[in-house]
Specification:
Strand content: 35-45%
Shape: globular
Number of helices: 2
Oligomer: single chain
């Protein structure tokens, strides 16, 4: 009897020890998970937090980012077929996501605004623009055909998000054979234009664009003097505004919200100078692209003040 009681007591002690160990293991795992996961803005990966919240730059909800994945160096390899593109002829662009130092690893991409990769192609003078979306292939690459309108140098921005790692933007240049068109110089601010019969206008809330401030602006679209409100979703938004610095180095991708039939957005600028802006919207199943030129001046933090408040989101790449 005593032997039985001793064995029972020993079993209970062993069970209690096992449960305690399991609880510690679970707690350690949860702590490790908390350390491994942070939150970052989908459009501003440099804005991070250890808990859910909103981006201090654009107001978007912060999304979970795995710290280990975020620390990995990625490369989006670009190949052209034919290798020497010619103006007026289709060229296949193939993008292959890789991990630097581990080319054999598969790199899944998250879908952002309904696409895995957003590709922006502009002529060096920023007088020509195209926004395209490569499609996934069995070999892990993403391909699409592009036809360059003239010879000369073009800049390509590829906007992609490796799963769990946060957004990446990669910049390329390519020289296209053929007769180049005469380059244009954009040195005067132009915030109004006519596109496919629509009058399109960018309206900065502060009446100007400044660095070191959040610039809130609206987009007004009218037809024959009447406001247009039948904006259709494209890539999960009512419109898309891409802004590129005059030197072709800085890239911002801005998504507006629709408020009472009008499109509102906001963005920030790192450096003064002239920028080209390309706004796309869709009505009646047709995509429209409007071109603008912005003159951004040097500003002091808080100079715009309350005009910094607004809707929408932006995302910057270098």
């Amino acid at each position: 009897m005593k032997s039985y009681l001793f064995m029972a007591a020993a079993a209970l002690l062993l069970l209690a020890s096992a449960c305690k160990h399991e609880m510690k293991t679970d707690a350690a795992a949860q702590a490790g998970e908390a350390e491994a996961t942070s939150y970052a803005c989908p459009m501003h990966p440099e804005v991070t937090s250890n808990k859910p919240g909103e981006c201090s730059k654009c107001g978007m909800d912060l999304k979970p980012v795995d710290a280990k994945a975020a620390s990995v160096e990625y490369d989006l390899h670009l190949a052209f077929t034919p290798e020497a593109p010619e103006a007026g002829k289709p060229t296949k662009l193939a993008f292959l996501p890789k991990i630097k130092g581990n080319d054999a690893a598969q790199v899944p991409l998250d879908e952002v605004h309904e696409k895995k990769i957003h590709v922006i192609v502009v002529s060096k003078d920023l007088g020509w623009y195209d926004h395209i979306h490569p499609e996934f292939q069995a070999d892990g690459s993403y391909t699409i055909d592009e036809t360059f309108p003239g010879g000369g140098e073009y800049v390509i921005f590829a906007d992609y998000t490796p799963s769990g790692a946060g957004n990446r933007v990669q910049r390329y240049t390519v020289n296209v054979g053929g007769s180049p068109k005469k380059p244009e110089a954009f040195t005067t601010q132009s915030l109004t234009t006519k596109t496919d019969g629509y009058d399109v206008k960018l309206v900065p809330a502060a009446g100007k664009f400044l660095t070191n401030n959040m610039n809130h602006l609206g987009v007004e679209v009218s037809e024959k003097g009447k406001p247009v409100a039948n904006f259709e979703n494209i890539m999960g938004a009512k419109g898309h505004l891409v802004i590129i610095s005059g030197d072709g180095q800085k890239y911002l991708h801005v998504h507006p919200d629709e408020v009472e039939g009008k499109l509102d957005l906001h963005t920030s600028f790192e450096q003064p100078g002239f920028y080209r802006a390309f706004f796309q919207f869709q009505t009646n199943g047709k995509l429209h692209t409007s071109y603008f030129t912005l003159d951004v001046k040097e500003g002091k933090p808080g100079e715009i003040g309350e005009h910094a408040e607004g809707q929408g989101s932006d995302h910057e790449g270098h």
